[in-house]
Specification:
The complex is a heterodimer of chains A (230) and B (226).
Chain A: E1 5-10, H1 14-25, E2 32-36, H2 46-51, E3 59-62, E4 65-66, H3 70-80, H4 96-123, H5 125-128, H6 136-159, H7 172-186, H8 195-205, H9 208-212, H10 216-220
Parallel strand pairs in A: 1-2
Antiparallel strand pairs in A: 1-3, 3-4
Helix pairs in contact in A: 1-3, 1-7, 4-6, 4-7, 6-8, 7-8
Chain B: E1 5-10, H1 14-25, E2 32-36, H2 46-51, E3 59-62, E4 65-67, H3 70-80, H4 93-117, H5 119-122, H6 130-154, H7 167-181, H8 190-200, H9 203-207, H10 211-215
Parallel strand pairs in B: 1-2
Antiparallel strand pairs in B: 1-3, 3-4
Helix pairs in contact in B: 1-3, 1-7, 4-6, 4-7, 6-8, 7-8
The chains are: A alpha+beta (230), B alpha+beta (226).
Amino acid sequence: MAKDMTLWWGSGSPPCWRVLIALEEKNLQGYNQKLLSFEKGEHKSKEVMDVNPRGQLPAFKFGDIVINESYGACFFLESKFKSQGTKLIPDCAGSDNNCALIALIMQRVFEGNTLHQKMVDVFMYNRRVPENERHESAFKRLKETLTTELQMWEGHLKKTPGGFLAGENFSMADVIVFPSVALLLRMGLSEDKYPKLAEYYKKLQGRPSVKATWPPTWKETPGQELLKDI
Amino acid sequence: MAKAMTLLWGAGSPPCWRVMIALEEKNLQGYNQKLLSFDKMEHKSKEVLDINPRGQLPTFKHGNTIVNDSYAVCFYLESQFKSQGNKLIPDSQEEQALMYQRMFEGLTFYDKLNAVIYYDWFVPEGERHESALNRNKEALTTELKLWEGYLQKLGSGSHVAGPSFTLADVVIFPTVAYLFRFGLSAKRYPKLGEYYNLLKDRPSVKASWPPHWLENPEGQDTLKDI
């Protein structure tokens, strides 16, 4: 099964990391993979464009199936390999508890997209916005928005004593959101200001699927300080 | 079941429409609902904030379960009510994979639409630039051509992820409907036009059609030159 899969990815990219974690959690080690460099523009290479016309990573192939959206790949893997590895989304067969748990998992999974977007809005501001369109007021607002968002996640984590985003068990919510949290800390987020996020980060750092897929470039270089004042 | 559900929603919101289509498809008519006004800032009212601290719509409650993200609600409803109404996630591996791919591309599609039609809503006056709006329009044009291509490959009469109506249609049709409401040219985008015509009379879509569109059949022409 894994041998029929190929993943094109970039180191440190949360969307790529989500798929890497999902593959590990579903016991799909042994997939073919190619590590590419965003800096060198390899995500726009012919090899990637042939699989993903958007020229983005991750790009994922499974036989003739192509899924280039990280959420899509994660959901597909969970659905197809439901009975192996970690169950990332419980079944809900008339069981109220599991249905409510699915609701919470899904809520956090999709809030994860908001978290990721707000983070990217801040650290990609200068790369995305041409110089003549930048405003101190806009950048300030983006930072405030990120701060509010992070405080919300501190609140979420305070309310789930199990330590994972949806309670006591690792779920799809953690697959999706952990990589963004890791990137926040990599970019200098203050552990003092966000103790619950720091605790969550440290707890998941030790998980086998996370250790096995830790961004190789992060092992070689120190992080940044961009978010230390957030 | 539906009687234990409450949906707070707003006019002009594709995410709200997604939830309403999903509820209809799963035969959950009869849910409690309240139409709120974005212009009057009712999405930031206590009523909403008590359920959804983000102060956003849709806001959805089912008994004690709260789910406020439109995609999350759709997945939740399909999980909990799998065996009633229409099946929204196909069994076939290939169809499912394409559904997931298109659903999540749908998020990008929606963002690019918003960046044009709601530019002034999202960007304070002092920060607006013609160059930025132009760039957003170009990005939307590129995105639209991608979707024309997707529909072209699937052939006439197809839904957005294949032969069956799926969650991908639930989340993407509202975006497409908004494109045409805001003046997109069906001549320039015939496949999208065909898709719009295919679904606009689907019962779940008709039942949840934005009421202010019924009152004012004519939309805007913001996108006529896209």
